[in-house]
Amino acid sequence: MIKMQSMQAVLKQYFGFSSFRPYQKDVIDKIIEGNDSLIVMATGSGKSLCYQVPPLVVGKTGVVVSPLISLMQDQVMSLKQRGIRAEFMGSSQTDSTVQNRAESGQFDILYMTPEKACLIPASFWSKLLSVGICLFAVDEAHCISEWGHDFRVEYKKLDKLRGILVDVPFIALTATATEKVRTDIVNSLKMQNPYVTIGSFDRPNLFYGVKSFNRGQSFVHELVQEVSKFVRRDGSTIIYCTTIKDVEQVFKSLKELGIKVGTYHGQMDSKARAESHRLFIRDELDVMVATIAFGMGIDKPNIRQVIHYGCPKSLESYYQESGRCGRDGVASVCWLYYTRSDFAKSDFYVGELQTESQRRAVVESLMAAQQYCLLTTCRRKFLLGHFGEKVSADKCGTCDNCISSKRERDMSREAFLLMACIQSCGSKWGLNMPVDILRGSRAKKIIDPQYDKLPLHGLGKDYSSNWWKALGYQLISSGYLMETVNDIYRTVSVSPKGYQFLSSAGPDHQAPLILPVTSEMVDDEDNKHASGEVGEIKSLATVECEGFSEAEKQLYHLLLEERRKLARAIGTAPYAICGDQTIKKIALTRPSTKARLANIDGVNQHLVVAHGNNFLRIIQDLSQGLNLTLDGEATVQTAFTRKVYPVSNQPKKLTPAKFEAWKMWHEEGLSIRKIANFPGRPAPIKELTVHEYLMDAAQEGCEIDWIRLCDEVGLTRKVFSDIQCAISKVGSSEKLKPIKEELPEDISYGHIKTCLAMQKYGISLDVIPSNLHNAQKAGQLSNKETESSPCSTRTSPIEGPCEAETLVQNSVATLGENEETASVPLTWGQTVKLPKVHFEDALSKKRQKLSSPDDGNSIALKATESSLFNWLKNKDGVTLAEILEHFNGSEEKSVIDLLSCLEGDFLIYRKNNMYMII
Ligand SMILES: Nc1ncnc2c1ncn2[C@@H]1O[C@H](COP(=O)(O)OP(=O)(O)OP(=O)(O)O)[C@@H](O)[C@H]1O
């Protein structure tokens, strides 16, 4: 329990977060207990926190091995902005004192390259061991395995440290690891009975889409126009190209449009690459055009779009690279553009590989990426399936294939021609040969084997070669054709299912064969240029600042600019100070005191201590200029009630009954109960069924007012967070039953499904008002009439100014003479020495000051700072209403003031409008 409180305190104090993400708490616990651990979790899921928190809890150094200097530098920069003592050791470290300071235990977190870890003398380790080392973490651990997609030889040598760091827990972390790679990691690092955590690979806030394109200048022109619009509206973009030539071409076109763009590739010298990287993460560049040399571990949270300009060489690298997108959890988009020629690059990727099995692995990886490109079903399901994760739903609702209603038509004649042609030329070629025959080619490769004499020669001239290849891949994915790999060569043959079709057909008669018209086919059939389709990016872009008033929007942008200036002045990245989402919350709540600022999710203690006064002054000045009041009631909910995609017509996959139910609820405002018992029905249906209809409608992109829905089904913040806890305990949201079993009886499947849907669409808990108008008792979804009411868009945050001494004063008061100091700016740009705050000391001293509980039976109980604190100590979180009920002898305003003071002192915190002890 004590450890838990410390973990929670560390989380808020240093990171500014009020809750752990799934798995984090358990993993941290296990590490603190001394277990070796293997952590396989999605990109951007927060793995780093698992090794960053333990050193702060136990007060010993955590050593982290990381493959890239730039990655380590970014991490160190961010940690320093959180008041954490972090450094890196590697060839580019210019500070010669780092090693001495490291071995005497002066760092909480110490990063090093694998080379450094292996080469540093044993005396370094023994000195560090004597002062205390709490973990040895290997980040991007898939680099250990030759089976991983990014093998590094030096990683293989880390095992020799096992004999030196005998009782130190070894932690391996990666976002992509097949079973084979996982076993390799555990064996290579000689892990002993490791605690293994494998989370979901899903990134629910990412939209996945694919398009075919041609590498012509006109396409590049269209693309850069769209990117420039996107950048202006939504934010940072990375464009990954497969060649340096493409990088240069796209870069040049963007530059000509006046976009702030940089490049990153292997032919740039290391200084130029580092500068480009630095400018991008510091928001000085809006677009980075790069080869895959740029990427692993980039944790700039506000990248809103990742475009692949050309098919990647494997789905593993696609997942890693697209995983740079939307790391703050906000909806973001990942587009992949491919051309047919990308699929023929096996020769290029196979390069120097010696063995057939290595070459085969590369070809198979490329084939999986090709399959992803040509898919007509849910891309997310395919991607997750590739990593061994089963998804029962056929549609995710947030990929291009799930949201667009694809055209289909009978292609039996064309399928007959292609399959017959493959059969006629002996099934020993890929798709190119039969397609060239059908298109009547007279190339040498056709004439020599006399394929021009085949009766099918020239019968397929009406379609382009790309059209035929698209059909070929449709037939492969629907099982009429089979593709086989021989060394690096692929051949296509007719499958038993295809034979069946051929044997019952002839040139003039075939059974109907309905297939989707893919985007490549559409281009051909409608004579439509691929470039015209780029425009779709726009309609799928994230909706920034939805629900903000005009003035709040302005304030948000001004605050972003102020954060950027501050970051520049202190030489850090804006996101290291705090994330965009935190700035949004500041723009909406406009705190007037440090206590209120500290209460915002994402605000850590270092920010409050070092920059709090400046932030408050700027918030005040800007708000005044925009006629906004301070301590505004957060219209936060509306800001995060993101619409999915507006739908005017019935989505194709939604049955009329479901669409009707959604229209009655959404457009006519009828309650779920009214819809279930609608007089027009032959017989009433269950309310739970109506609720499920609404969930299906949401899945199909219909707009849902989540506040109203939560209100109707009784999904309170408490219920929502109970469900989140249950999910994190179960470790997966794939099956509902185990989650339900972790929860009280009165929390229904309906609640769980709503909660999951909201998580999936990235809808924050903040949307749920603290006092639901109609909130039924949980679990009574089908029992009570819940007339719909106009949706409340306002919560009731705690009001009233805080007259408490400020956090800085408190903290300074607890410091001894010899406390360490940290350099922080006084105003934007100036720096002074501020005492380094030891939070635990402050906390314990504050606790000692408090007297024993005066929780009595008196009729009118008065709240004091200490009585309030002691009473809260025994509670698992209470609402303001409950506090007021208990301390019935105190005025609401004075209770709120006391709470603000305790919050300001970091003794209590507020989460989902519940007050808890840190
Ligand atoms: N509990 C939390 N609450 C809010 N944000 C969090 C939490 N934990 C981590 N984050 C944020 O999530 C982002 C991603 O975290 P992190 O860099 O650790 O991801 P990762 O799992 O290592 O991903 P990758 O494998 O792609 O590098 C970071 O910006 C981090 O600050």
From TrEMBL:
<dbReference type="GO" id="GO:0043138">
    <property type="term" value="F:3'-5' DNA helicase activity"/>
</dbReference>
<dbReference type="InterPro" id="IPR029491">
    <property type="entry name" value="Helicase_HTH"/>
</dbReference>
<dbReference type="InterPro" id="IPR001650">
    <property type="entry name" value="Helicase_C-like"/>
</dbReference>
<dbReference type="GO" id="GO:0009378">
    <property type="term" value="F:four-way junction helicase activity"/>
</dbReference>
<feature type="domain" description="HRDC">
    <location>
        <begin position="549"/>
        <end position="629"/>
    </location>
</feature>
<dbReference type="InterPro" id="IPR027417">
    <property type="entry name" value="P-loop_NTPase"/>
</dbReference>
<feature type="compositionally biased region" description="Polar residues">
    <location>
        <begin position="778"/>
        <end position="796"/>
    </location>
</feature>
<dbReference type="GO" id="GO:0005634">
    <property type="term" value="C:nucleus"/>
</dbReference>
<dbReference type="InterPro" id="IPR002121">
    <property type="entry name" value="HRDC_dom"/>
</dbReference>
<dbReference type="InterPro" id="IPR010997">
    <property type="entry name" value="HRDC-like_sf"/>
</dbReference>
<dbReference type="GO" id="GO:0000724">
    <property type="term" value="P:double-strand break repair via homologous recombination"/>
</dbReference>
<dbReference type="InterPro" id="IPR036388">
    <property type="entry name" value="WH-like_DNA-bd_sf"/>
</dbReference>
<dbReference type="Pfam" id="PF16124">
    <property type="entry name" value="RecQ_Zn_bind"/>
</dbReference>
<keyword id="KW-0067">ATP-binding</keyword>
<dbReference type="GO" id="GO:0006260">
    <property type="term" value="P:DNA replication"/>
</dbReference>
<dbReference type="GO" id="GO:0005524">
    <property type="term" value="F:ATP binding"/>
</dbReference>
<dbReference type="Pfam" id="PF09382">
    <property type="entry name" value="RQC"/>
</dbReference>
<feature type="domain" description="Helicase C-terminal">
    <location>
        <begin position="222"/>
        <end position="375"/>
    </location>
</feature>
<keyword id="KW-0347">Helicase</keyword>
<dbReference type="InterPro" id="IPR036390">
    <property type="entry name" value="WH_DNA-bd_sf"/>
</dbReference>
<dbReference type="InterPro" id="IPR044876">
    <property type="entry name" value="HRDC_dom_sf"/>
</dbReference>
<dbReference type="InterPro" id="IPR011545">
    <property type="entry name" value="DEAD/DEAH_box_helicase_dom"/>
</dbReference>
<dbReference type="InterPro" id="IPR014001">
    <property type="entry name" value="Helicase_ATP-bd"/>
</dbReference>
<keyword id="KW-0378">Hydrolase</keyword>
<dbReference type="GO" id="GO:0016887">
    <property type="term" value="F:ATP hydrolysis activity"/>
</dbReference>
<comment type="similarity">
    <text>Belongs to the helicase family. RecQ subfamily.</text>
</comment>
<dbReference type="GO" id="GO:0005737">
    <property type="term" value="C:cytoplasm"/>
</dbReference>
<dbReference type="InterPro" id="IPR032284">
    <property type="entry name" value="RecQ_Zn-bd"/>
</dbReference>
<dbReference type="Pfam" id="PF00270">
    <property type="entry name" value="DEAD"/>
</dbReference>
<feature type="domain" description="Helicase ATP-binding">
    <location>
        <begin position="28"/>
        <end position="195"/>
    </location>
</feature>
<dbReference type="InterPro" id="IPR018982">
    <property type="entry name" value="RQC_domain"/>
</dbReference>
<dbReference type="InterPro" id="IPR004589">
    <property type="entry name" value="DNA_helicase_ATP-dep_RecQ"/>
</dbReference>
<keyword id="KW-0547">Nucleotide-binding</keyword>
<keyword id="KW-0238">DNA-binding</keyword>
<dbReference type="Pfam" id="PF14493">
    <property type="entry name" value="HTH_40"/>
</dbReference>
<dbReference type="GO" id="GO:0005694">
    <property type="term" value="C:chromosome"/>
</dbReference>
<dbReference type="Pfam" id="PF00570">
    <property type="entry name" value="HRDC"/>
</dbReference>
<keyword id="KW-0413">Isomerase</keyword>
<dbReference type="Pfam" id="PF00271">
    <property type="entry name" value="Helicase_C"/>
</dbReference>
<feature type="region of interest" description="Disordered">
    <location>
        <begin position="778"/>
        <end position="799"/>
    </location>
</feature>
<keyword id="KW-0539">Nucleus</keyword>
<protein>
    <recommendedName>
        <fullName>ATP-dependent DNA helicase</fullName>
        <ecNumber>5.6.2.4</ecNumber>
    </recommendedName>
</protein>
